[in-house]
Amino acid sequence: MHLGEAKKMTNFTVTTGNDDAFDGGDLAAETADGGGLSLREALGLANANADVDTITFDASLSGSTLTLSGSELVISNSVTIDGDIDGDNRADITIDANGGSRVFNVTGGTSTLDSLVITGGNAVNGGGINIAGGGGLFFSSPALTVANTTISNNSAVNGGGIFSQGDLTITNSLITGNDATDDGGGIYLVNGDTLITSSTRPVIQ
Ligand SMILES: [Ca+2]
Ligand SMILES: [Ca+2]
Ligand SMILES: [Ca+2]
Ligand SMILES: [Ca+2]
User: What mean pLDDT value characterizes the chain?
Assistant: First the structure.
């Protein structure tokens, strides 16, 4: 986050573990339908504006698993998703695609996934996370930082945990128990810059 920047920033607080669909409404409408504001709805709202937004989770969701209902979560625009509710830099939120889809598809922006457990993803490339490549001369590749996060038990043909064509930074995270039928059980890197740092935990197993 660059707090000195003039850009607007909105924080969306996820209040339901249900996977309510994003219907293109505003915050009030998306909160009013289903069980509250879902992560999918919060992402839809964050993607819909050019601001660098943050998504956090209501304390009532601490320790819970958000199970996706068969389609990936798309990040098309810079956002930070912070699953640390109690401030100890450890995940308090699990996102489980339950084998029905990838978990996150990062198609644009400079984003951070912080203090999450990402599991159960399944896709051809990048079961847990796919970072798309740039769309040519005028579109730079997305950049993603994965911090304080566990990526486990995802599967793909290439890149069970992560498939990256963008810029990837991994810090203090655990990537374990992911499976690829072809290459890259944990991470498959096509291009882009990758930086892996860890002060407290093993990174890739
Ligand atoms: Ca909705
Ligand atoms: Ca809703
Ligand atoms: Ca935004
Ligand atoms: Ca925590």
Answer: 91
